[in-house]
Design brief:
There is one protein chain. A hairpin with a 2-residue loop joins strand 3 and strand 4. This protein is of the alpha+beta class. The chain has three helices and four strands, in the order αββαββα. Helix content is 41%, strand content 14%.
Length: 106
């Protein structure tokens, strides 16, 4: 998903329902879905009741397109905090440029 598409109050609930329906229909029971609503990368975490379903999900979803956006699907590394809001590339480049200018004056 893209944050700019989340323009009504039911967007994330509708998205969760759509993901759950497709996953359960194709892969088996879903234990939990977590949508990181503030993450600009459109991160969704799905926990299945059976580990084999997670493996099949990765095979099925990785490299597929959803709403014209390429899906990257992998196992959770246990470390990444997807609640953190990553700054957009342009904002990051601007911040780094400003820091570079500041360094040059030191």
């Amino acid at each position: 998903f893209r944050l700019e598409d989340a323009n009504d109050e039911t967007y994330f609930q509708d998205l969760e329902n759509e993901i759950k329906m497709e996953c359960e229909e194709r892969l088996g029971p879903v234990h939990r879905i977590k949508i990181y609503e503030n993450n600009p990368n459109g991160v969704v975490q799905i926990k299945f009741q059976h580990p084999s379903s997670a493996e099949e999900c990765i095979k099925l979803m990785h490299g597929r397109y959803f709403d014209a956006k390429l899906i990257e699907c992998d196992y959770y590394d246990g470390k990444t905090d997807y609640n953190k809001t990553a700054e957009c590339r342009i904002a990051q480049e601007n911040r780094l440029d400003e820091f570079g200018k500041w360094l040059e004056t030191q």
